[in-house]
Structure formats: C-alpha cells, structure tokens
Design brief:
The structure is a single chain. The chain has a domain of 234 residues: FAD/NAD(P)-binding domain (3-Layer(bba) Sandwich), CATH 3.50.50. It contains twelve helices and 22 strands. Strands 4, 6, 7, 8, 14, 15, 16, 17, 18, 19 and 20 form an eleven-stranded mixed beta sheet that branches. The chain has an eight-stranded mixed beta sheet with strand order 12-11-10-2-1-13-22-21. Helix 1 packs parallel to helix 9, helix 1 packs parallel to helix 12 and helix 5 crosses helix 12. It is globular and about 65 Å long.
C-alpha cells in the first residue's frame, strides 16, 4: 500500500530521509521554516568523517579539564548562565565517556560511519544524473581528499601517531603520518609550527555543505517531492495520522518524521518524550587566503581546537564547542581567539562574511543518534541527535530509518539508536 509522510526539517538528515522514503514509493512533503540546507547543515567544517569511529567524548585528563574550566579555550567555551540547564546532561555525558562506555559507543557507531561516504556517493550520483545543467559542479562539491589532524607538540604527535596506526589497523582505515617536513610538502600553504600531522585518507571534504543539501533537495523535487514552509511546532496527531500547519494551510499525512536537529526536542517534549538533547554551538567565518599556495585538505588543529577547510567561498574557520542555551546571544570570543591562532599558520587574509555564522550541533549524552519509532505514538518517527556528524551520517541514517519504516530488513541492527532507550 502507498503511504504519505511529512518530514519535518530540511537539513541534511531531513532531506536524506525524504529521498529514501520517496525512493520506496512514499509520497513525501518536506516541511521547514526556511529553505533546505540553511540551518545547521549550512555551517560546518564540510567533513564526511569516515575515519571518526570514536565519538567525541568528555575529556578525562585532569590537565585538560583544568584548562577548559578557565573558559578561555578555543576548544570549548561555556555560558555560565546556561550551566544549570546543562548540569544533568553533562553528568550523563561524563558517565558515557568512561573508556568502556566510549568503546561501546564506537562499536555501535561503526556500521553508520563505515557506510557514510558510500551513501553520500549514491545520493550524489543520483543528484548529478538528474541535474539539468550543473552536474559537474555538483560532483566537484565532494572531494575524496581526506583530512589532516595537525599537532603542535612533538610528544603529542608521537603518541597520537601510534594510536592512529592502532585504530586504522583495527577498523580497516587508511592513514599516513607526516613529520614537520613532510607536512610542508603535503600542504605548502601551511607556515612552520606544526610538529606533524596524521592524514586520514578515507573521509571526503565538501566544498559547500549548504549547496550539497540544496542539490539533494532539488533531486527530491525533480522526482515528485513537495516542499512547504511551515511551523513544526504545530505538529498534532489527527485522525489516525499527523497534521502540521504550513503557509498553504494544514497538511496531513499517515507518517511524520521529526528531523529538526537541535530543535527536535521542542516538538517531541510536548508529546511526552524527554530525550536528553542539548545544543553544542559553533561559529564559522570565511577568509581570503594570503598563503603562497592553496590549502587542499581540511586541517584540524588539535591543540587549537578549530578546523580550517578550503571552501568555494574561501578558507572557512570553524570553532570548537560552545555550551550555551539556544536563546543566549552569540559570543564571538571563541572565534576571535581561533582566528588569532590560525591566521599566521594558514595565511588568513581579510574576513569575507558580513558577520560570523552561528549554529548548533544536536547532541545526546550517549553520542548516538535517535533513529526509530516514537515509543507511544503510531506513525511518528525520530531522526535527530547526530552530535558532530550530521553531515557525515545524514544519508546513511536516512537509509536505516526508511528501512525500519517500510518493514525492510535493516542493513545494520537499529537497536543502539532507538528512541526507547531514553524512555
């Protein structure tokens, strides 16, 4: 029997869910307050992180914790007024980051991470095949160049190089290590100052994440999908299905998928669900390059806690984490500090954006996404909480969710991601 569905959220996860359901014969309407790819999916480092098999846990080293408590790090900042609202979440995050639990999270995430690039490639091939004029431009958005973890400390580089070799061997990943001289050959645009870097070769780099999501959305529309601007907070159970208000009036469907990233809990909480979802905010700015050569790969400055990635618009500097409530005003101190650290290393020139971009990463304390049926409402499905890996995991998560919705045999066990773990 044919089905119809409302997918709430037009970021990478929602658009991917819409495409996977559409490919299985579901009539899908994608609903968002803004055009596709203009919220969290727009502002990130553009990494499809096929090598990030270990989630970003809470630091356990006491020296690192003392550094972060000072609240002047480019890696992590926090808004003091927001901390009471984060207290329980941080306690859970700390518990889930214990070595044994973190290893369990890595095992659970591996099936999704391992297929992340392949699922993007499948969607990109379909998108390019249906593109009317810019197929080559779309293909050029995703570059199989990997990314670099750069270290300033020789001692830390030596430790991490051995750990990287162990992780690569354990999970079948591809990497190579550059000493300081080798790094200057591999990336001639970098100034002296890094002791070495690890080149993770499996990931892909996206030159314009927002444009990639818009390209996927165009595929959805060309294949018969519908987009409507509407208010996800109006979602209500209605006559055995679901209804939401749009600019064109009420929209009803048999199924509803909540894929609203860091705003998902605003929809699920009124329905009685207490999913521990918190935003980790981040900022980015584009710069002209004054380096003598172009940067060819994204570079993560490990001690600095920021990423510099070559984008279509210029060099994008992306900050680490800021813990602050959704309604708190932007604080650009973290970006300013990262800019001061990155400018001499990367040859950052003038700022190219009118003001810094700020966005939010939707994070669960157990570092796993929420993918599956709502425990107490028929026809309601969740697809959010991808932590730092929304761009990476959007297409593969969408496949797993669509397989569950349609009663197919899932390509991997969905139990680690099911919403009922928070019941």
């Amino acid at each position: 029997m044919s089905k119809d569905a409302i997918v709430l959220g037009a970021g990478i996860v929602g658009v991917s869910v819409a495409l996977h359901l559409q490919a299985r014969g579901v009539r899908v309407t994608l609903v968002d307050r803004r055009a596709p790819g203009e919220e969290t999916s727009f502002g990130n480092a553009g990494l499809i992180e096929a090598s990030s098999v270990v989630p970003y846990g809470f630091p356990r080293d006491w020296r690192m914790l003392l550094r972060l408590v000072r609240n002047d790090s480019t890696m992590l900042r926090y808004d003091l007024r927001s901390m009471p609202a984060y207290a329980r979440w941080l306690a859970s995050f700390w518990r889930e980051s214990a070595p044994a639990r973190l290893a369990g999270a890595a095992r659970d995430m591996l099936p999704l991470i391992a297929r992340s690039v392949a699922e993007h490639e499948a969607l990109l091939a379909r998108t390019a095949a249906r593109a009317q004029a810019n197929a080559e431009d779309l293909r050029a958005l995703v570059r199989p160049v990997g990314w670099l973890e750069a270290y300033r400390s020789p001692a830390q580089f030596e430790r991490e190089r051995e750990e990287a070799r162990r992780v690569a061997g354990q999970h079948g990943l591809h990497m190579e290590a550059f000493d300081a001289a080798g790094l200057r050959v591999a990336e001639a645009s970098l100034a002296q100052g890094y002791a070495g870097a690890i080149h993770w070769m499996d990931p892909a780099s996206v030159a314009d994440p927002g444009a990639l999501v818009k390209g996927y959305a165009q595929l959805f529309l060309r294949e018969g999908g519908t987009f409507a601007q509407g208010d996800a907070l109006t979602l209500r159970a209605q006559g055995g299905g679901w209804q939401v208000q749009t600019e064109d009036g009420p929209l009803a469907a048999e199924l509803a998928v909540v894929a609203l990233g860091p705003w998902s809990d605003l929809v699920t909480a009124p329905l009685g669900y207490r999913v521990p979802l918190k935003p980790k905010r981040g900022y980015h700015m584009h710069y002209a390059s004054e380096a003598g050569a172009p940067l060819t790969r994204p570079v993560v400055d490990i001690e600095g806690g920021y990423v510099v990635a070559p984008m279509k618009r210029g060099l994008r500097l992306t900050t680490g984490v800021e813990l602050a409530a959704r309604d708190r005003p932007p604080n650009y101190a973290q970006l300013d500090a990262a800019e001061r650290a990155a400018r001499p290393m990367f040859g950052l020139g003038k700022r190219l954006d009118e003001k810094p971009w700020m966005g939010m990463r939707p994070c669960t304390p157990d570092m796993r996404p929420v993918l599956g049926p709502a425990p107490r409402h028929a026809g309601l499905w969740f697809a959010f909480g991808h932590n730092h890996h929304g761009l990476t995991l959007g297409p593969v998560s969408a496949r797993l969710l669509a397989e569950q919705i349609m009663g197919e045999t899932p390509f991997t066990d969905p139990r680690p991601y099911l919403p009922h773990r928070f019941a």
